[in-house]
């Protein structure tokens, strides 16, 4: 059974969410403060974290930062902070999704399901090699110009989609559909900050950048000669 870590200090909302996720077929472990969340993260190794930002002790931002030091599991921020600046900060800090309170229960479940699908390593088969870049699915990593770096599930999927469409512009709407499983194209800022995180991890700013931003449209991978390993 897939395990979710729910970090929420409101006891009534926490109970409602636990019932919602349990009825949807998930195992749920809960924490009502930041320290407890990090202890459960290490002890239970959940498949996904649903994270509130306003917590006693360590707040959600600190939990997110420390989580990213430990693991690349999907993190969905569920917060009453609705300002665009807060959503931008969350996505820039490494959250995979951000949903504001109040929220629709079916939308929350759909977003959790989408993140879990994208993080499933069973979907990634075979290495890919392309002009200085190698994608290694079993380690969910990218080797760029001889340097390997681990990627989050979203970052790996984003890079894979761009590489598979080399030379062609992939629009923001297409990336939301293909990478985030969001065909309605909500939360467009997720794409921008995921690309920024990907570039930072690959440190491709120090040399030729194969990822091109096409203003008003989307992004393009400019490499040549992509092929599955062994072809």
Automatic annotation (TrEMBL):
Which protein, by its recorded name, is this?
Transcriptional regulator
Q: Which GO terms describe its molecular function?
A: phosphorelay response regulator activity; transcription cis-regulatory region binding
Keyword annotations for this protein? DNA-binding, Phosphoprotein, Transcription, Transcription regulation
Q: Does the keyword Transcription regulation apply?
A: yes
Ranges where the OmpR/PhoB-type domain occurs: 125-223
4-aspartylphosphate occurs at: 52
Q: Name one GO cellular component term.
A: protein-DNA complex
What is the species listed in this Swiss-Prot or TrEMBL entry? Streptomyces alboflavus
